[in-house]
């Protein structure tokens, strides 16, 4: 069942099977970091990128849940119509992203 608008669905994937779960709860966040803070304070689990929790997982005070259902993220991609039409601001962003990826 699809929902129009509303909250973000948690997305899972395993061996070609995809699953979306709409989670209802008492708390709603607009930042992954506030989700992590709430989870660390015992309010529940957080659906956030693994790298945000990497230190807590390494320390052993938090664990991955449904790890085998966690989809991977290959990174961001930039699409633009023509190299000749790039604005100076766009060039700065591309250069910064290239530098960050090294």
UniProtKB/TrEMBL annotation:
Keywords recorded for this protein, A-Z: DNA-binding
Protein name: DNA-binding transcriptional LysR family regulator
Pfam families, sorted: LysR_substrate (PF03466)
Keyword DNA-binding: yes
InterPro entries: LysR-type_TF_proteobact-type, LysR_subst-bd
Family stated for the protein in its record: Belongs to the LysR transcriptional regulatory family.
Cited PANTHER family: HTH-TYPE TRANSCRIPTIONAL REGULATOR, HTH-TYPE TRANSCRIPTIONAL REGULATOR PGRR
MF terms (GO), sorted A to Z: DNA binding
Top-rank lineage group of the source organism: Bacteria
Domain LysR substrate-binding per the UniProt entry, residue ranges: 6-100
């Amino acid at each position: 069942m699809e929902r129009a608008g509303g909250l973000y669905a948690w997305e899972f994937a395993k061996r070609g099977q995809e699953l979306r779960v709409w989670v209802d709860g008492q708390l709603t966040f607009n930042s992954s970091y506030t989700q992590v803070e709430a989870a660390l304070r015992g309010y529940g689990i957080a659906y956030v990128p693994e790298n945000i929790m990497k230190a807590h997982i390494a320390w052993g005070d938090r664990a991955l849940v449904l790890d085998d259902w966690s989809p991977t993220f290959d990174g961001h991609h930039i699409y633009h119509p023509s190299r000749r039409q790039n604005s100076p601001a766009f060039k700065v962003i591309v250069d910064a992203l290239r530098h960050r990826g090294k």
